[in-house]
Write a structure and sequence with these properties.
Chain B: It is a multi-pass membrane protein. Chain B: It comes from Lates calcarifer. Chain B: This is G protein-coupled receptor 89B. Chain B: One of its GO terms (cellular component) is Golgi cisterna membrane. Chain B: One of its GO terms (molecular function) is voltage-gated monoatomic anion channel activity. The structure holds two protein chains of two kinds. Chain A is an alpha/beta fold. Chain A has one domain: Rossmann fold. Helix content of chain A is 25%, strand content 25%. In chain A, the strands form two sheets. In chain A, strands 2-3-1-4-5-6 form a six-stranded mixed sheet, with helices on both faces. The two termini of chain A are 27 Å apart. In chain B, helix 8 crosses helix 13. Chain B is mostly helical. Chain B has two domains: 331 residues, no CATH class; 93 residues. The longest helix of chain B is centred in the middle third of the chain and has 53 residues. Classes of the chains: A alpha/beta, B mainly alpha. At the A-B interface, strand 2, strand 3, helix 2 and helix 3 of A face helix 6 and helix 7 of B.
Chain lengths: 209, 455
């Protein structure tokens, strides 16, 4: 077995948006049958062939750390959660497209995670308010995922897509919108910019057992 | 009995209460969720508004606002509306939203919601059987039937909350009970938590790699032919999957451990914060209050026991008794009627405000702790139901705290309920709740330091 580098990615978002289902989908290639509340943090691992077929092919383990809870949790919960935010290579922010509050809460989630990141740029926050400047210089790549797109009525879809486009611009992040996990084919392309040498991860179409 | 009837605006107050309920719902309860079903917010605000109106009517009674007949009319109207809400509207919507969440029943939502409501009504009616809450002369379709049952549920809730609150309040306020937690304790636990997570990660990596290898080998094996090829493929996959299930079991155990460690760490962090708070001026003030409340709690438990053992029924309210004592024993003469009115007003006002505030705070804590985006509608409606029943029972029990002349309207409006039964029932449940809380807190307190050693 060739030596495999460690890649740690946080999956953050309000409870009920579908983080556990997403992680399960990415790692087990299966739909999660009965999602239940995540207490603390649940981790799963995906084996990813980077640059498959080329001479630089390397296999990575991507650790997806799914942190449970809500932004309004007690400070004791937040202090405990902070131990999971160390040495993170990327953050996936998940929000529910049918619930505006979950999108708004993503600002607070990212602030919480980035404050704990011991990056050399030293992110400084002024009384917790969102500041776009921070995200511009943020070395940690962000990916925005919106779930339950199929549950939005046809006429509202454009409005929702515009809103999320603004959101991903604010975060300087890439964006993906997901339909119901029961579809037969799902192909994702994940581009993590700024990650040491601009790696592009391609998830091939995932088949369901 | 009271002075001249002063004109008091009545309906603006109801609008105010409705608005307060609306804001409370939006800002406190649903601050992390999106309100999609506005009917839930309306039902909650209406329940809150009509419950508060009952308290307002008691205050009006004491102050002599409006005319006596007009007060009686508003009482009756308010009572009918609130019973309608608590017995028909809220339970029906609870059933409706529960059914909506279940995929199988979703198509025939209305039908199943009605079935749920009829089941609720059946049990609600059956509730009257074991309790001597009605005198036999009441017909089957009288309003007393409904109020009496609502009263039983509400009084039980009040007593449970009151008992637990009486014990928990000094326990949380007093720093005597705070366990000693140092930073190194927390760091040690956090380190263990991260180590456990790392172990989970490495095991999952093994599982992922093994599955991948099995899959790749499976492709190779499909090319293997012959008898020995078949044997080889069967045995190797078997050992492969046996290994996998073993590792998976280890992972499951480790994940359970990680959850426990997480909750432990949260607990320690919370205790550390409380220790820091207790060193501040506010903390010291609350610590002092805690000692005061613990005496009050012991007194209440003692009084409840005396009431039950000696089958005592309180005859006079605290206001009249206080006035009697000052007049007869201290020899101070004053205008009894005037002071009786004002002191009642203040006392009843304090009781009302602290009840409402205490209940809303408890409801918010409860809601934030147990709700999720799917169940938020159901939970907030359940809380509205509890709130309504709680307030109706408060009015019922508050009768005892008021002088006779103000008591009559409550007696008149609520009908001839066995009020003494409700007080006795309150004492019993209060005692049970308080003693169980003491036991529970004692066990939790003792177990905590040992848990750290074991883990």
């Amino acid at each position: 077995m060739a030596s495999l580098d460690r890649v740690k990615v946080l999956v953050l978002g309000d409870s009920g948006v579908g983080k556990s289902s997403l992680v399960h989908l990415l790692c087990q290639n299966q739909v999660l049958g009965n999602p239940s509340w995540t207490v603390g943090c649940s981790v799963d691992v995906r084996v990813q062939d980077y640059k498959e077929g080329t001479p630089e092919e390397k296999t990575y383990y991507i650790e997806l750390w799914d942190v449970g809870g809500s932004v309004g949790s007690a400070s004791s919960v937040k202090s405990t959660r902070a131990v999971f935010y160390n040495s993170v290579n990327g953050i996936i922010l998940v929000h529910d497209l049918t619930n505006k509050k979950s999108s708004q809460n993503l600002y607070r989630w990212s602030l919480e995670a980035l404050n704990k990141d011991s990056s050399p740029t030293g992110v400084i926050v002024s009384n917790g308010d969102y500041d776009r400047e921070q995200f511009a210089e943020n070395p940690v790549p962000l990916l925005l995922i919106g779930t339950k797109f199929d549950q939005i009525p046809e006429n509202k879809r454009n409005e929702v897509l515009t809103r999320t486009a603004f959101l991903s611009e604010d975060f300087n992040a890439e964006e993906i919108n997901l339909c119901n996990f029961n579809t037969t084919f799902l192909s994702l392309s994940l581009q993590m910019t700024g990650f040491t040498d601009r790696k592009r991860f391609n998830f091939k179409s995932l088949h369901y057992d | 009995s009271s002075s001249s009837s002063i004109y008091f605006p009545f309906y603006p107050w109801q609008v105010l209460f409705f608005g307060f309920g609306w804001l409370f719902f939006m800002r406190q309860l649903f601050k992390d969720y999106e309100v999609r079903q506005y009917v839930v917010q309306v039902v909650f605000s209406v329940t809150f508004a009509f419950s508060c109106t009952m308290f307002e009517l008691i205050i009006f009674e004491i102050l002599g606002a409006l005319s006596s007949s007009s007060r009686y009319f508003h009482w009756k109207l308010n009572l009918y509306v609130i019973l309608l809400v608590l017995i028909f509207v809220v339970p029906f919507y609870i059933g409706y939203f529960v059914v909506s969440n279940i995929r199988l029943l979703q198509r025939q939502r209305l039908l199943f919601a009605c079935m749920v409501w009829f089941t609720f009504m059946y049990f609600f009616w059956k509730l009257g059987d074991p309790f001597p809450i009605l005198s036999p002369k009441h017909g089957i379709l009288s309003i007393e039937q409904l109020i009496s049952r609502v009263g039983v549920i509400g009084v039980t809730l009040m007593a449970l909350l009151s008992g637990f609150g009486a014990v928990n309040c000094p326990y949380t306020y007093m720093s005597y009970f705070l366990r000693n937690v140092t930073d190194s304790d927390i760091l040690a636990l956090e380190r263990r938590l991260l180590q456990t997570m790392d172990m989970i990660v490495s095991k999952k990596k093994r599982i992922a790699m093994t599955r991948r290898q099995m899959y790749q080998r499976g492709e190779d094996q499909n090319k293997q032919t012959g008898f020995w090829g078949m044997i080889k493929s069967v045995t190797s996959t078997q050992t492969g999957s046996e290994n996998l299930s073993l590792i998976q079991q280890e992972v499951d155990a480790l994940e359970e451990l990680s959850r426990q460690l997480f909750l432990e760490t949260v607990d320690l962090q919370a205790t550390k914060e409380r220790i820091e708070y207790s060193k501040t001026f506010q903390g010291k003030y609350f610590n002092f209050l805690g000692y005061f409340f613990s005496i009050y709690c012991v007194w209440k438990i003692f009084m409840a026991t005396i009431n039950i053992v000696f089958d005592r029924v309180g005859k006079t309210d605290p206001v009249t008794r206080g006035i009697e004592i000052t007049v007869n024993y201290l020899g101070i003469q004053f205008d009894v009627k005037f002071w009786s009115q004002h002191i009642s007003f203040i006392l009843v006002g304090i009781i009302i405000v602290t009840s409402i505030r205490g209940l809303l705070i408890t409801l918010t804590k409860f809601f934030c702790a147990i709700s999720s985006s799917k169940s938020s509608n159901v939970i907030v409606l359940v809380l509205a139901q509890i709130m309504g029943m709680y307030f109706v029972s408060s009015v019922l029990l508050m009768r005892m705290s008021m002088p006779l002349e103000y008591r009559s309207i409550v007696t008149e409006v609520l009908g001839e309920l066995q009020f003494n039964f409700y007080h006795r029932w309150f004492d019993v449940i209060f005692l049970v709740s308080a003693l169980s809380s003491i036991l529970f807190l004692y066990l939790a307190h003792k177990q905590a330091p040992e848990k750290h050693m074991a883990l």
